[in-house]
Fold this sequence. Notes:
This protein is globular. It has one domain: Alpha-Beta Barrel (TIM Barrel). A nine-stranded parallel sheet has the order 3-2-1-9-8-7-6-5-4. 43% of the residues lie in helices and 13% in strands. It has helices spanning 22-32, 41-47, 49-58, 80-95, 115-136, 159-169, 179-182, 188-199, 229-238, 260-274, and strands at 9-12, 36-38, 62-63, 66-70, 101-104, 140-142, 173-178, 200-205, 245-247.
Amino acid sequence: MSGVPAERLSLNTATVRAQWSLAECIEGCARHGIGGISPWRDKLHEMGVDAAARAIRDAGLSVSGLCRGGWFTASGALDQSVIDDNRRAVDEAAALEAACLVMVVGGLPDGSRDLPGAWKLVEDGLAATLDYARTVGVKIAIEPLHPMYAADRACVNTTGQALDICDRLGDGIGCALDVYHVWWDPELEVQIARAGRERLMAFHVCDWLVPTRDLLTDRGMMGDGVIDIPRLRGLVEAQGFDGLVEVEIFSELDWWTRDADEVLAAVLERGRTAC
Length: 275
Ligand code: ZN
């Protein structure tokens, strides 16, 4: 399978979050010929939603996703403030014409051991957000996170678990598949086929380094680790996924310390050779 050309790549702004503002990311993507961008909300708020939407449109970029909504479990109940923040995230995704709003759903509430209770909070929060998102035409994409994050970030940990939720909630909700989180799953191929085109809403790439020095911020550049990214891309594309390949690398020890243009040059090269 041949690699991914620049115009089919999207830059998740976390990849250069230590170096660049959103305005700089937009300008950098345009300059490197990258086809899309996926902003994080902190950078989006810094720039202002309207200004960002305009700059992204003017640069001719598509928005492969907005990162991120969710965090439904923080207080141990479904607070109105959490629902309201997710509605704002939906509105921001609409303003950016984002392909989806990516959901990191939240882990266990502080001090809790009630995992089934956390699952219920998550599903109730997703249902409430989805009701609103349908009225403005925004798609909701659950990002299953690697099980090592079940306690502190997201208690939806496999593609199958995410699709079970989608089955119960109906139209307008699907998955954002990040190779970092799902590559290890022996059921992945079956679950990608089960998801089908409609529910495959985003595809995130980076690599799993051996050894991994930090559980959150030591992701590798594509090709530097052990994930067979071309195989996984082949599986989603076999279902008809034709969205952008979004590069999302948290790398405190390496890529965040480099010049951002050097990072983007590496992203382009590895898009061609390792994706
Ligand atoms: Zn991701």
